[in-house]
UniProtKB/TrEMBL annotation:
This is C2H2 finger domain protein. Residues 1-42, 147-171 are annotated as: Disordered. Residues 1-10 have a biased composition (Pro residues). It comes from Aspergillus keveii.
Length: 171
């Protein structure tokens, strides 16, 4: 039996498929990192995690989540607390110097058996990282002079006014 050429219309030909298996989940495993290629402050973090029993793959996941943790804290500090870019830059530098995830036990291997892979690990990393970074931010605010605090308060007020205006426009 010869096969007819596909129709020339705008619709693709209908084909039957015997493969009814569900789609495979995407691989969300981060690429492996080379610890010696990390900046010095991240090498300290890597060593800290490994000495606490973290596997190299778990460390890869930890480092893959750093940008999302930083974005979250930056959003809070910028839009809620009124920090400017220069203050955020100093904050990042200070976190790099001071922050070590001490006391953060390795994830339970059973965490990977739940439907959303690495859900609990992600949650723990966000919670731990954000709490530690917020402590650094609190110490920095305590060390700021009055002029810097006044500028932050002004930016907080501007942000509140901007949000109120947006809410009024939506209504």
């Amino acid at each position: 039996m010869t096969q007819e050429p596909p129709p020339t219309g705008s619709q693709p030909p209908i084909t039957s498929s015997l493969d009814i298996s569900p789609p495979r989940p995407r691989d969300r495993t981060p690429p492996p990192i080379n610890p010696s290629s990390l900046p010095q402050h991240q090498q300290r973090v890597y060593t800290c995690l490994r000495t606490q029993g973290w596997s190299p793959q778990q460390c890869d996941y930890y480092f893959a989540k750093i940008p999302s943790r930083q974005r979250h804290v930056h959003l809070v500090l910028r839009h809620v607390e009124g920090w400017n870019e220069e203050q955020l830059s100093r904050f990042d530098q200070r976190c790099a110097e001071e922050y070590l995830p001490e006391g953060l036990p390795p994830p339970d291997p059973e965490d990977d058996n739940i439907p959303v892979s690495n859900f609990w690990l992600t949650h723990r990393l966000l919670e731990d990282g954000n709490l530690r970074r917020k402590r650094v931010a609190k110490r920095m605010v305590e060390e700021m002079d009055e002029v810097e605090r006044a500028g932050m308060q002004e930016r907080q007020m501007e942000e509140r006014r901007r949000r109120e205006m947006q809410e009024r426009e939506v209504r």
